[in-house]
Amino acid sequence: MTKIFETPLYPYSRHPDQDATSPVHHKVIVLGAGPVGLAAAIDLAQRGVPVVVLDENDRVSSGSRAICFSKRTLEILDRLGCGDIAVETGVTWNKGRVFFDERDIFEFDLLPDEGHKRPAFINLQQYYLEQFLVERVQVLAAEGKPIEIRGRNRVEAIGRHRDHVRLQVETPEGPYELQAEWLIACDGANSPTRRMMGLDFVGRVFEDNFLIADVVMKADFPTERWFWFDPPFNRGQSALLHRQPDNVWRIDLQLGWDIDREAEKQPERVIPRLKAMLGEDVEFELEWVSIYTFQCRRMEKFRHGRVIFAGDAAHQVSPFGARGANSGLQDTDNLCWKLARVLDGAAPETLLDSYDWERVYGADENIMNSTRSTEFITPKSEISHLFRDAVLDLAARHDFARPIVNSGRLSVPCTYDDGPLNSEDCADMPVCTRPGSPLPDAPLGDGWLLDALGPDFTLLAINTPCPEPANLAGIQVLEISAKDNPILAKRYLGDLSGALYLVRPDHHVAARWPSHDEMAVKTAFRRAIAVQLGGWNA
Amino acid sequence: MPDLNLKRNLADPDRFYANLMAIHDGLSKAESDALNARLILIMANHIGDESVLEQALSAAAEVLRKPEI
To answer: Which residue ranges does the record assign to the FAD-binding domain (chain A) (predicted)?
Structure first.
């Protein structure tokens, strides 16, 4: 059977731009058709912004690569039109189990809270997610939306100008040039864009190798994330087992630093390791094997004039916690509504600097979490090893130690506390919906709160009237009731009888009040689109 | 902010010290180290208060530092 990643999904074909006498100008060019680049392109096209994606390849990535997609990512995919198919295809899981040595020490639930449309996580091979996103691009293009992917178009040189970027693009039929008003670089951890621009990417290298193997097997392990510290089959190291669709299982084995990487990748080495873990009698075949090391690092700034970096190109973390692809989709979710507004002339260019502030903040949080996980999973000193094992021994017996066990702090969206677009908070409202927070979902009628919000700003009025805002383009009012809806009331009202929320297009809270106040709404909206009072007419 | 209590607080210091030594009886160095680590974690959880814990960490670390001249 031909695998999806062996099929060209967007094969090279000659574009009229290649025969133009001078470089054709585009509003936005996205580099890279991975999950992050595709998400950026779909988001922009849905907002009516013309976008061209250039990718050096012509198919989805081979191997599963990223597999854990968080609730927040699914909520973003809902807005991009791919949420349902991702959840239908993916394996839903909420539970994790931790083993130490030969013991099963405890299990945990990632979403103990009810009242969310989407589960805490699904597992889905990255090639499936990319396939769904490519298909979505094709649907949008067929509907006449201004979006296209050009396969086997590799950027060889970048020229930066005050009001545009010039690209030299290599194709199977030779080079051509393009211009872009804005360039979004989603070209991965080894970003050629970053290299061509000579930008630093510094951080911390972790001296460890991990074997990643995706195996196809019929097995009756439950749909849980299983994590081993120091198991008998991989002494002194860690191991992870995780289910994906199509009976594919992700196995991740820590190997240590001083190994022969080429030799360890060979089936004659890999298969005995896997048999030691799964049992001699389990039949499996290898789908994908790779050995990786990792770093935790980020660029100093994500915006460099008209070039904006997103995803792994801008920041890199250890895989523990699934904070790579998930944070990349949060990047583009943050960026695209801002860029669309700037292109429309409905916000100043400085709005894009808030992308830099907020996503650098997010990257630092992810780097901090993934660094802490790595230190717990792979202790590098005698004393850190001692305490790590003490925590695990206690966790087998006492509940208090379980939250200290760190086998990866799984990706949750960050709250942009003190973010530049937030307005001052009002007292006595729930902490989980303070300004900067990602909007928590809640049941609403027969559906869900997040699905009821529009593509632009929303004034969410709960148990309180809200007149249509005058002269504020792009705000939609949604009046709802929290009667007989304790989850909504708990998350949005607390002890108050009503509340009004100004919600950004990326579903973060910009401001909130106990009741409507026209002046306050206007001020908060202007702040949320980076317009200082008096300096800009929205 | 609650303060870390660095004044006398043990009713019977000799008994506590003897009990502390007793749980290490017959243990290897590695076993004793592990026991100490567990004890620190159990006591830290009991204290709970972040600021008290930070003061305790500093107080423990400071003893090793050279006195200021």
So the answer is: 27-367
